[in-house]
Amino acid sequence: MDAALSPYAAVLALMLSVFLAALSVLRIAAGGRDREGLRRRMARAGGLTDAGSGTARTGLRGRVLDIVRRLGESIAPTEREVLSEQRVCFLQAGLRGHQAPLVFWGVRLALVVLLVGGAFLLRFSAPLPGIKRSFALIAALGGCLGYYLPLFWLRSRTTERKRVLLNEVPDVLDLLVVCVEAGMGLDQAIERVSREVATSAPEMSQELRILTLELRAGKDRHAALRGLSLRVGLEDVDALVTLLIQADSFGTSVATTLRVYSDTMRTKRFQRAEETAAKLPVKLLFPLVLFILPALFVVIIGPAALQLGDIFARINP
């Protein structure tokens, strides 16, 4: 039995190791640019040069990303509509690099090749009857995992980022209300808030910073606000952008608009907290029944059961 299960355990171990390697490549692609920029800014702040950054980029990480990017170029879609939809997905996941889609497709191709190749290697290195019978299933499973696991990772990253942004928006909106009511213009208030919340709300601060840079570059305010809504991908931000565009178009007070919407956001945040608290008893029911109550029954009934066993053993020797 152990000999029959060992090939399957080897397949699972191989798939897990390949997936972890691909996940590390995706994380490097996602955060490498930000880390390098942070290192350069810290070096400039300390009076140092960033001569070593080019060497770091040409190291092992740069070579791996270059190989994965070339793989992605061979299978990435070329239609403009598909590329636009994918660009939106990567922006909402926080991946703003131009090479991110190519790296993503390259990782998918590499995972498929490695997992299917691992199935072939296992087929010929461990010629057991069970492997021969289930070889097609193992290869198909490896191909499906290699193709869909990066997609699941991207969706999970997008969902987590939207959750973080949803928690950061009310605080950012409150500061924006304070700045506008203090007499600042909307553009100056957005720039000031992006600097003030850099530590407490880093994701929203980065989005507002991009919005500020677009406005400085001469982009139309309505288009820049719509771009912010597209990058964030939240209904609350969509509604806020719509209100700001309407207030700017019809000449109504931006401060009043932000104040009313800030109160609405606070109410919705409180309602979400109440909803989460109301769901807790139902979510705790299954762990309580499956794990806590059996242990409690063993602790309470166990000694009585042992005593009853001793009594019956004495009655019927």
Describe the 3D structure.
- The radius of gyration is 28 Å and the shape is flat.
- It has 12 helices and no strands.
- Helix 7 (135-181) packs across helix 8 (186-196).
- It has helices spanning 2-45, 51-57, 60-75, 80-92, 100-125, 129-133, 135-181, 186-196, 202-216, 221-232, 235-250, 254-315.
- The model is unreliable at 1-5 and 42-57 (pLDDT under 50).
- The protein has 2 domains: 2-161, no CATH class; 165-270.
- The protein has 317 residues and is an all-alpha fold.
Describe what is shown at a glance.
With 317 residues, this protein is mainly α.
Features:
disordered N terminus, 317 residues, 0% strand, 2 domains, mainly alpha
Please write out the topology:
Elements: H1 2-45, H2 51-57, H3 60-75, H4 80-92, H5 100-125, H6 129-133, H7 135-181, H8 186-196, H9 202-216, H10 221-232, H11 235-250, H12 254-315
Helix pairs in contact: 1-5, 1-7, 3-5, 5-7, 7-8, 7-12, 8-9, 9-10, 10-11, 11-12
